[in-house]
Amino acid sequence: MKLMEAEGREILARHGIPVPAGRVVSAPGELDGIAGPVVVKALVPVGGRGKAGGVKFAGTLEEARARVGEIIGLEIKGCRVRSVLVSEKVDIARELYLSISVDRDAGMALLMASALGGMDIESVPEEKIYRRYINPLIGLQSYQLRDLAGHLALEKPVGQQVSDIARKLYSAFVAEDAELLEINPLAVMPGGKVVAADAKAVIDDDSLFRHPGHREVEPDITPLEQEARERGISFVQLDGNIGVIANGAGLTMATLDALGLVGGNGGTFLDLGGTDDPEKVKQAFRILKKARPKVILMNIFGGITRCDTVATGVHEVVRSEGAGAPVVARIKGWYEERAREILKDAGLITATTMEEAARKAAELSREA
Ligand code: GDP
Ligand code: MN
Protein backbone atom coordinates (compact mmCIF):
# COMPACT_ATOMS: atom_id res chain seq x y z
CA MET A 1 0.00 0.00 0.00
CA LYS A 2 1.31 3.40 -0.97
CA LEU A 3 0.87 6.03 1.68
CA MET A 4 0.47 9.73 1.15
CA GLU A 5 3.22 12.05 2.29
CA ALA A 6 1.31 13.10 5.42
CA GLU A 7 1.20 9.52 6.65
CA GLY A 8 4.77 8.87 5.54
CA ARG A 9 5.83 11.81 7.68
CA GLU A 10 3.90 10.47 10.66
CA ILE A 11 5.88 7.25 10.38
CA LEU A 12 9.19 9.11 10.23
CA ALA A 13 8.24 11.32 13.15
CA ARG A 14 7.16 8.32 15.20
CA HIS A 15 10.63 6.91 14.78
CA GLY A 16 12.37 10.12 15.79
CA ILE A 17 13.26 11.56 12.37
CA PRO A 18 12.86 15.36 12.23
CA VAL A 19 10.01 16.44 9.94
CA PRO A 20 8.52 19.92 9.45
CA ALA A 21 5.20 20.62 11.14
CA GLY A 22 2.24 20.42 8.80
CA ARG A 23 -1.41 19.65 8.46
CA VAL A 24 -3.82 18.24 5.94
CA VAL A 25 -6.62 20.37 4.47
CA SER A 26 -9.10 19.68 1.72
CA ALA A 27 -10.42 23.22 1.11
CA PRO A 28 -8.89 26.71 1.28
CA GLY A 29 -11.41 27.68 3.96
CA GLU A 30 -10.11 25.02 6.34
CA LEU A 31 -6.87 26.92 6.63
CA ASP A 32 -6.77 29.35 9.54
CA GLY A 33 -3.66 30.99 10.98
CA ILE A 34 -0.26 30.07 9.64
CA ALA A 35 3.00 31.18 11.19
CA GLY A 36 5.47 32.11 8.49
CA PRO A 37 6.08 30.77 4.99
CA VAL A 38 4.55 27.43 4.06
CA VAL A 39 4.75 24.90 1.29
CA VAL A 40 1.47 23.53 -0.05
CA LYS A 41 1.84 19.98 -1.36
CA ALA A 42 -0.62 17.83 -3.28
CA LEU A 43 -1.46 14.61 -1.45
CA VAL A 44 -1.30 12.00 -4.18
CA PRO A 45 0.40 8.64 -3.94
CA VAL A 46 2.87 9.40 -6.77
CA GLY A 47 6.17 11.26 -6.98
CA GLY A 48 7.11 14.12 -9.27
CA ARG A 49 4.50 16.43 -7.80
CA GLY A 50 6.92 19.35 -7.89
CA LYS A 51 7.23 19.24 -11.68
CA ALA A 52 3.49 18.75 -12.09
CA GLY A 53 2.61 21.95 -10.21
CA GLY A 54 1.65 20.10 -7.05
CA VAL A 55 4.18 21.81 -4.75
CA LYS A 56 3.85 25.57 -4.23
CA PHE A 57 5.06 28.13 -1.71
CA ALA A 58 3.16 30.85 0.12
CA GLY A 59 4.14 33.62 2.50
CA THR A 60 0.79 34.71 3.90
CA LEU A 61 -2.51 33.11 4.80
CA GLU A 62 -4.21 34.60 1.71
CA GLU A 63 -1.47 33.26 -0.56
CA ALA A 64 -1.61 29.89 1.13
CA ARG A 65 -5.39 29.69 0.63
CA ALA A 66 -4.94 30.61 -3.03
CA ARG A 67 -2.30 27.86 -3.50
CA VAL A 68 -4.57 25.33 -1.76
CA GLY A 69 -7.35 26.28 -4.19
CA GLU A 70 -5.03 25.90 -7.18
CA ILE A 71 -3.67 22.51 -6.21
CA ILE A 72 -6.89 20.82 -5.08
CA GLY A 73 -8.59 19.34 -8.13
CA LEU A 74 -5.39 19.07 -10.18
CA GLU A 75 -4.75 15.73 -11.80
CA ILE A 76 -1.22 14.45 -11.28
CA LYS A 77 -0.25 11.29 -13.16
CA GLY A 78 -3.86 10.20 -13.24
CA CYS A 79 -4.53 10.95 -9.58
CA ARG A 80 -7.03 13.65 -8.64
CA VAL A 81 -5.81 15.85 -5.78
CA ARG A 82 -8.41 15.85 -3.02
CA SER A 83 -6.34 17.21 -0.16
CA VAL A 84 -3.05 18.97 0.43
CA LEU A 85 -0.40 19.07 3.08
CA VAL A 86 0.29 22.60 4.27
CA SER A 87 3.66 22.48 5.87
CA GLU A 88 6.18 24.84 7.38
CA LYS A 89 8.57 25.84 4.59
CA VAL A 90 12.06 24.53 5.20
CA ASP A 91 15.03 26.71 4.23
CA ILE A 92 17.04 24.35 2.12
CA ALA A 93 20.77 24.75 1.54
CA ARG A 94 21.35 21.25 0.13
CA GLU A 95 19.12 18.39 -0.92
CA LEU A 96 20.21 14.83 -0.18
CA TYR A 97 18.55 11.50 -0.99
CA LEU A 98 18.00 8.63 1.41
CA SER A 99 15.94 5.48 1.06
CA ILE A 100 15.59 1.90 2.19
CA SER A 101 13.78 -0.57 -0.03
CA VAL A 102 13.30 -4.30 -0.40
CA ASP A 103 15.68 -5.76 -2.95
CA ARG A 104 13.95 -8.95 -3.98
CA ASP A 105 16.89 -10.33 -5.96
CA ALA A 106 19.24 -9.96 -3.03
CA GLY A 107 16.62 -10.97 -0.49
CA MET A 108 17.72 -8.04 1.65
CA ALA A 109 16.91 -4.44 2.35
CA LEU A 110 18.90 -1.94 0.32
CA LEU A 111 20.06 1.38 1.69
CA MET A 112 20.54 4.06 -0.95
CA ALA A 113 21.84 7.55 -0.41
CA SER A 114 23.05 10.35 -2.61
CA ALA A 115 24.34 13.87 -2.31
CA LEU A 116 22.23 14.65 -5.38
CA GLY A 117 18.80 14.79 -3.77
CA GLY A 118 15.68 16.48 -5.02
CA MET A 119 15.67 14.76 -8.39
CA ASP A 120 14.39 11.34 -9.40
CA ILE A 121 16.84 8.75 -8.15
CA GLU A 122 16.53 7.06 -11.58
CA SER A 123 18.20 10.08 -13.16
CA VAL A 124 21.11 10.24 -10.71
CA PRO A 125 24.31 8.75 -12.21
CA GLU A 126 25.04 5.31 -10.81
CA GLU A 127 28.41 6.33 -9.33
CA LYS A 128 26.74 9.11 -7.34
CA ILE A 129 24.56 6.65 -5.44
CA TYR A 130 25.76 4.95 -2.30
CA ARG A 131 24.23 1.46 -2.06
CA ARG A 132 24.59 -1.02 0.74
CA TYR A 133 22.64 -4.15 1.52
CA ILE A 134 21.44 -4.61 5.04
CA ASN A 135 21.79 -8.12 6.38
CA PRO A 136 18.43 -8.84 8.03
CA LEU A 137 20.03 -10.93 10.77
CA ILE A 138 22.37 -8.22 12.04
CA GLY A 139 20.69 -5.06 10.78
CA LEU A 140 22.29 -1.82 9.69
CA GLN A 141 25.82 -1.67 11.06
CA SER A 142 27.67 1.34 12.47
CA TYR A 143 30.48 0.96 9.93
CA GLN A 144 27.91 1.21 7.14
CA LEU A 145 26.64 4.44 8.62
CA ARG A 146 30.16 5.92 8.93
CA ASP A 147 30.87 4.77 5.41
CA LEU A 148 27.68 6.50 4.23
CA ALA A 149 28.65 9.89 5.69
CA GLY A 150 32.10 9.52 4.11
CA HIS A 151 30.76 8.66 0.66
CA LEU A 152 28.45 11.63 0.63
CA ALA A 153 31.37 13.86 1.72
CA LEU A 154 29.29 15.43 4.46
CA GLU A 155 30.83 17.69 7.05
CA LYS A 156 30.83 16.06 10.46
CA PRO A 157 27.72 17.48 12.16
CA VAL A 158 25.62 16.90 9.04
CA GLY A 159 27.08 13.42 8.56
CA GLN A 160 26.19 12.52 12.12
CA GLN A 161 22.58 13.61 11.67
CA VAL A 162 22.28 11.75 8.36
CA SER A 163 23.70 8.58 9.95
CA ASP A 164 21.30 8.91 12.84
CA ILE A 165 18.37 9.41 10.43
CA ALA A 166 19.45 6.37 8.38
CA ARG A 167 19.54 4.24 11.53
CA LYS A 168 16.07 5.42 12.52
CA LEU A 169 14.83 4.93 8.99
CA TYR A 170 15.88 1.30 9.15
CA SER A 171 14.08 0.72 12.45
CA ALA A 172 10.99 2.36 10.94
CA PHE A 173 11.38 0.16 7.85
CA VAL A 174 11.40 -3.01 9.95
CA ALA A 175 8.74 -1.95 12.46
CA GLU A 176 6.31 -0.76 9.79
CA ASP A 177 6.82 -3.72 7.41
CA ALA A 178 7.75 -1.26 4.69
CA GLU A 179 8.71 -2.13 1.14
CA LEU A 180 10.05 1.38 0.65
CA LEU A 181 10.78 4.38 2.82
CA GLU A 182 12.21 7.26 0.84
CA ILE A 183 13.21 10.76 1.91
CA ASN A 184 13.81 12.94 -1.14
CA PRO A 185 14.85 15.58 -0.45
CA LEU A 186 16.50 15.04 2.87
CA ALA A 187 17.06 18.73 3.44
CA VAL A 188 20.16 20.30 4.95
CA MET A 189 19.21 23.74 6.27
CA PRO A 190 21.60 26.70 6.11
CA GLY A 191 22.42 26.23 9.81
CA GLY A 192 23.28 22.57 9.19
CA LYS A 193 20.14 21.00 10.63
CA VAL A 194 18.86 17.99 8.64
CA VAL A 195 15.10 17.39 8.16
CA ALA A 196 12.96 15.16 5.98
CA ALA A 197 11.25 17.51 3.49
CA ASP A 198 9.38 14.67 1.73
CA ALA A 199 8.34 11.17 2.75
CA LYS A 200 7.34 8.30 0.54
CA ALA A 201 6.22 5.06 2.13
CA VAL A 202 5.04 1.79 0.67
CA ILE A 203 3.82 -0.81 3.16
CA ASP A 204 3.74 -4.54 2.41
CA ASP A 205 0.08 -5.38 1.74
CA ASP A 206 0.46 -8.75 3.45
CA SER A 207 1.36 -7.02 6.69
CA LEU A 208 -1.61 -4.66 6.81
CA PHE A 209 -3.38 -6.75 9.43
CA ARG A 210 -0.58 -5.68 11.75
CA HIS A 211 -1.00 -1.99 10.91
CA PRO A 212 -4.75 -1.38 10.89
CA GLY A 213 -4.43 2.42 11.11
CA HIS A 214 -3.40 3.13 7.52
CA ARG A 215 -5.79 5.13 5.39
CA GLU A 216 -6.28 3.46 2.05
CA VAL A 217 -5.81 5.82 -0.84
CA GLU A 218 -9.17 5.92 -2.58
CA PRO A 219 -8.74 5.07 -6.24
CA ASP A 220 -10.52 7.26 -8.75
CA ILE A 221 -13.57 5.32 -9.87
CA THR A 222 -16.72 6.27 -11.70
CA PRO A 223 -20.17 5.96 -10.06
CA LEU A 224 -20.92 2.98 -12.29
CA GLU A 225 -17.64 1.32 -11.33
CA GLN A 226 -18.58 1.93 -7.70
CA GLU A 227 -21.98 0.30 -8.24
CA ALA A 228 -20.32 -2.72 -9.87
CA ARG A 229 -17.83 -3.00 -7.04
CA GLU A 230 -20.63 -3.06 -4.48
CA ARG A 231 -22.14 -5.99 -6.36
CA GLY A 232 -18.82 -7.79 -6.50
CA ILE A 233 -18.40 -7.36 -10.25
CA SER A 234 -15.11 -6.20 -11.73
CA PHE A 235 -15.97 -3.52 -14.21
CA VAL A 236 -13.85 -0.75 -15.75
CA GLN A 237 -14.97 2.14 -17.94
CA LEU A 238 -12.76 3.18 -20.88
CA ASP A 239 -13.09 5.66 -23.75
CA GLY A 240 -14.35 3.44 -26.56
CA ASN A 241 -17.85 2.41 -27.59
CA ILE A 242 -17.81 -1.39 -27.41
CA GLY A 243 -18.80 -3.01 -24.15
CA VAL A 244 -16.73 -6.10 -23.49
CA ILE A 245 -17.93 -8.86 -21.25
CA ALA A 246 -15.72 -11.88 -20.70
CA ASN A 247 -14.76 -14.27 -17.97
CA GLY A 248 -11.37 -14.13 -16.29
CA ALA A 249 -8.99 -11.18 -16.34
CA GLY A 250 -6.76 -12.78 -18.98
CA LEU A 251 -9.54 -13.45 -21.46
CA THR A 252 -10.99 -10.00 -20.83
CA MET A 253 -7.65 -8.36 -21.67
CA ALA A 254 -7.18 -10.63 -24.69
CA THR A 255 -10.62 -9.63 -25.94
CA LEU A 256 -9.75 -5.95 -25.67
CA ASP A 257 -6.54 -6.66 -27.59
CA ALA A 258 -8.43 -8.60 -30.25
CA LEU A 259 -10.74 -5.63 -30.66
CA GLY A 260 -7.82 -3.26 -30.90
CA LEU A 261 -6.24 -5.37 -33.65
CA VAL A 262 -9.31 -5.09 -35.84
CA GLY A 263 -9.80 -1.37 -35.20
CA GLY A 264 -12.47 -1.66 -32.53
CA ASN A 265 -12.54 0.42 -29.38
CA GLY A 266 -13.25 -1.17 -26.03
CA GLY A 267 -15.44 1.16 -24.01
CA THR A 268 -15.92 -0.82 -20.85
CA PHE A 269 -14.90 -4.19 -19.74
CA LEU A 270 -16.48 -6.48 -17.35
CA ASP A 271 -15.02 -9.63 -15.95
CA LEU A 272 -17.60 -12.22 -15.02
CA GLY A 273 -14.95 -14.23 -13.22
CA GLY A 274 -15.73 -17.87 -12.62
CA THR A 275 -19.43 -17.40 -12.22
CA ASP A 276 -22.19 -19.05 -14.19
CA ASP A 277 -24.88 -17.92 -11.78
CA PRO A 278 -27.61 -16.55 -14.08
CA GLU A 279 -28.48 -13.91 -11.49
CA LYS A 280 -24.92 -12.57 -11.47
CA VAL A 281 -24.82 -12.62 -15.27
CA LYS A 282 -28.01 -10.57 -15.32
CA GLN A 283 -26.58 -8.01 -12.92
CA ALA A 284 -23.39 -7.80 -14.96
CA PHE A 285 -25.38 -7.13 -18.11
CA ARG A 286 -27.41 -4.45 -16.39
CA ILE A 287 -24.26 -2.60 -15.30
CA LEU A 288 -22.81 -2.87 -18.79
CA LYS A 289 -26.00 -1.53 -20.36
CA LYS A 290 -25.91 1.54 -18.15
CA ALA A 291 -22.60 2.50 -19.74
CA ARG A 292 -24.53 2.73 -23.05
CA PRO A 293 -22.15 0.88 -25.36
CA LYS A 294 -22.94 0.86 -29.09
CA VAL A 295 -22.21 -2.82 -29.32
CA ILE A 296 -21.67 -5.50 -26.71
CA LEU A 297 -19.02 -8.12 -27.32
CA MET A 298 -19.32 -11.14 -25.16
CA ASN A 299 -16.48 -13.63 -25.03
CA ILE A 300 -16.97 -16.58 -22.72
CA PHE A 301 -14.75 -19.56 -22.22
CA GLY A 302 -16.42 -22.29 -20.25
CA GLY A 303 -13.79 -24.46 -18.60
CA ILE A 304 -15.42 -24.90 -15.24
CA THR A 305 -18.17 -22.41 -15.93
CA ARG A 306 -20.98 -23.96 -17.96
CA CYS A 307 -21.60 -22.01 -21.14
CA ASP A 308 -25.30 -22.82 -21.21
CA THR A 309 -25.93 -21.43 -17.71
CA VAL A 310 -24.17 -18.19 -18.66
CA ALA A 311 -26.24 -18.13 -21.85
CA THR A 312 -29.41 -18.66 -19.85
CA GLY A 313 -28.65 -15.59 -17.74
CA VAL A 314 -28.00 -13.54 -20.86
CA HIS A 315 -31.15 -14.88 -22.51
CA GLU A 316 -33.28 -13.92 -19.53
CA VAL A 317 -31.95 -10.40 -19.27
CA VAL A 318 -32.14 -9.77 -23.03
CA ARG A 319 -35.66 -11.12 -23.24
CA SER A 320 -37.00 -9.32 -20.20
CA GLU A 321 -35.29 -5.96 -20.50
CA GLY A 322 -33.44 -5.88 -23.83
CA ALA A 323 -29.69 -5.65 -24.31
CA GLY A 324 -29.77 -1.99 -25.31
CA ALA A 325 -27.30 -2.67 -28.12
CA PRO A 326 -26.51 -5.45 -30.58
CA VAL A 327 -24.67 -8.29 -28.86
CA VAL A 328 -21.99 -10.34 -30.56
CA ALA A 329 -21.35 -13.48 -28.58
CA ARG A 330 -18.51 -15.94 -28.84
CA ILE A 331 -18.86 -18.76 -26.43
CA LYS A 332 -16.54 -21.70 -26.22
CA GLY A 333 -16.20 -24.70 -23.97
CA TRP A 334 -18.44 -26.85 -21.85
CA TYR A 335 -21.95 -27.15 -23.35
CA GLU A 336 -21.15 -24.57 -26.03
CA GLU A 337 -23.59 -25.89 -28.66
CA ARG A 338 -26.47 -25.64 -26.25
CA ALA A 339 -25.28 -22.15 -25.24
CA ARG A 340 -25.19 -21.02 -28.88
CA GLU A 341 -28.74 -22.23 -29.41
CA ILE A 342 -29.91 -20.30 -26.37
CA LEU A 343 -28.09 -17.14 -27.49
CA LYS A 344 -29.41 -17.38 -31.04
CA ASP A 345 -32.86 -17.79 -29.62
CA ALA A 346 -32.31 -14.56 -27.68
CA GLY A 347 -31.49 -12.81 -30.96
CA LEU A 348 -27.75 -12.50 -30.42
CA ILE A 349 -25.13 -12.61 -33.16
CA THR A 350 -22.94 -15.60 -32.50
CA ALA A 351 -19.37 -16.26 -33.58
CA THR A 352 -17.06 -19.19 -33.07
CA THR A 353 -13.65 -17.54 -32.92
CA MET A 354 -12.49 -14.53 -30.96
CA GLU A 355 -11.23 -12.83 -34.10
CA GLU A 356 -14.52 -13.28 -35.92
CA ALA A 357 -16.42 -11.93 -32.94
CA ALA A 358 -14.10 -8.94 -32.60
CA ARG A 359 -14.45 -8.13 -36.32
CA LYS A 360 -18.22 -8.28 -36.20
CA ALA A 361 -18.34 -6.09 -33.10
CA ALA A 362 -15.94 -3.55 -34.59
CA GLU A 363 -17.98 -3.39 -37.83
CA LEU A 364 -21.23 -2.92 -35.96
CA SER A 365 -19.70 -0.21 -33.78
CA ARG A 366 -18.78 1.73 -36.92
CA GLU A 367 -22.24 1.35 -38.43
CA ALA A 368 -24.21 2.12 -35.33
P1 GDP B 1 7.90 15.44 -5.25
O1 GDP B 1 8.22 16.29 -6.44
O2 GDP B 1 6.59 14.74 -5.38
O3 GDP B 1 8.99 14.51 -4.89
O4 GDP B 1 7.70 16.48 -4.03
P2 GDP B 1 8.77 17.07 -3.01
O5 GDP B 1 8.13 17.16 -1.69
O6 GDP B 1 10.04 16.33 -3.05
O7 GDP B 1 8.98 18.55 -3.53
C1 GDP B 1 9.61 18.82 -4.76
C2 GDP B 1 10.69 19.87 -4.56
O8 GDP B 1 10.12 21.04 -4.00
C3 GDP B 1 11.80 19.46 -3.61
O9 GDP B 1 12.82 18.74 -4.24
C4 GDP B 1 12.27 20.80 -3.11
O10 GDP B 1 13.22 21.34 -4.02
C5 GDP B 1 11.04 21.64 -3.13
N1 GDP B 1 10.48 21.68 -1.77
C6 GDP B 1 9.57 20.87 -1.19
N2 GDP B 1 9.33 21.21 0.07
C7 GDP B 1 10.11 22.27 0.33
C8 GDP B 1 10.34 23.11 1.47
O11 GDP B 1 9.78 22.94 2.56
N3 GDP B 1 11.23 24.13 1.32
C9 GDP B 1 11.89 24.38 0.16
N4 GDP B 1 12.75 25.38 0.12
N5 GDP B 1 11.71 23.61 -0.92
C10 GDP B 1 10.84 22.58 -0.86
MN1 MN C 1 10.29 14.24 -3.36
CATH topology of the largest domain: Rossmann fold
CATH architecture of the largest domain: 3-Layer(aba) Sandwich
List segments where confidence is low: pLDDT < 50 over at least 5 consecutive residues: none
Total number of domains:
3
Series of secondary-structure elements, N-terminal to C-terminal: EHEEEHEEEEEEHHEEEHEEHEHEHEHEH
Mean pLDDT: 92
What is the straight-line distance between the termini? 43 Å
User: Tell me about the biggest sheet?
Assistant: 7 strands, antiparallel
Structure classification: alpha+beta
Number of helices: 10
What's the Cα radius of gyration? 27 Å
What compounds are bound to the protein? Answer: guanosine-5'-diphosphate, manganese (II) ion
- The total beta strand count reads 19
Question: How much helical structure, as a percent, in the residues?
Answer: 25-40%
Q: Please state roughly what percent of the residues sit in beta strands, choosing from under 5%, 5-15%, 15-25%, 25-35%, 35-45% or over 45%.
A: 25-35%
The name of the CATH superfamily of the largest domain reads Succinyl-CoA synthetase domains
Q: Determine and state the CATH class of the largest domain.
A: Alpha Beta
Overall body shape: elongated
